[in-house]
Amino acid sequence: MDDKRILVLGVGNVLYTDEGIGVRAVEQLQREYEFSDNVTLMDGGTLGVKLMGPMMDCDFLIVLDAVLGGHDPGSVYRLVGDDLRKGLAFRNSLHDTDLVDTLMSCELCGNRPDAVVIGMEPTDFSTMSTELSETSDASMPKFIENALKEVEAAGGSFTRRDVPLEEVSYVPRSAG
Q1: Most buried of the four, 10, 107, 163, 173, by CB within 10 Å?
Q2: Tens of pLDDT along 7-42?
Q3: Which among 39, 37, 84 is positioned nearest to 65, based on CA atoms?
Q4: What distance in Å separates the CA atoms of residue 161 and residue 107, rounded to the nearest whole number?
Q5: Are the CB atoms for 79 and 67 separated by under 8 Å?
Q6: Would you state the pLDDT for residue 98?
Q7: What values do phi and psi take at 147, rounded to 5?
């Protein structure tokens, strides 16, 4: 099989409003679309360097994340090459480590995938809330559209589900 293994990785902390943009986008993609077998969607949360394994197992990486690019909140960015270093120097992030550092670690280990970041300028990434800001929520369709274009350009395919999957809520089991 010559299909590229494509990983769509949503990163961020869903407890801090727009810091969770990438994870919320992956959740929406999982609910609303079915993807070809060569496409994997993953909630990377704030795992940072612990994402090296999945990153090294793919041929093409599409990262969805909040990016401080200096434009209006809700602006959507496409970052590749040198733009990654500039756009992802998000040191105010609650991620375990910088994504660029993790990609460089993959390279040092011998397998750095080709990568693109689809980012959105956050409105608020410091208020504790599990909901996105109104601006980010309104910009989500454009964010999702850009992610789907990257999947297609990388050799993946998708179809929209007739009926979106229902959301699954995490309910902790009692210790007793």
Answers
A1: 10
A2: 999 988 889 899 999 999 999 999 999 999 999 999
A3: 84
A4: 36
A5: yes
A6: 61
A7: -65, -45
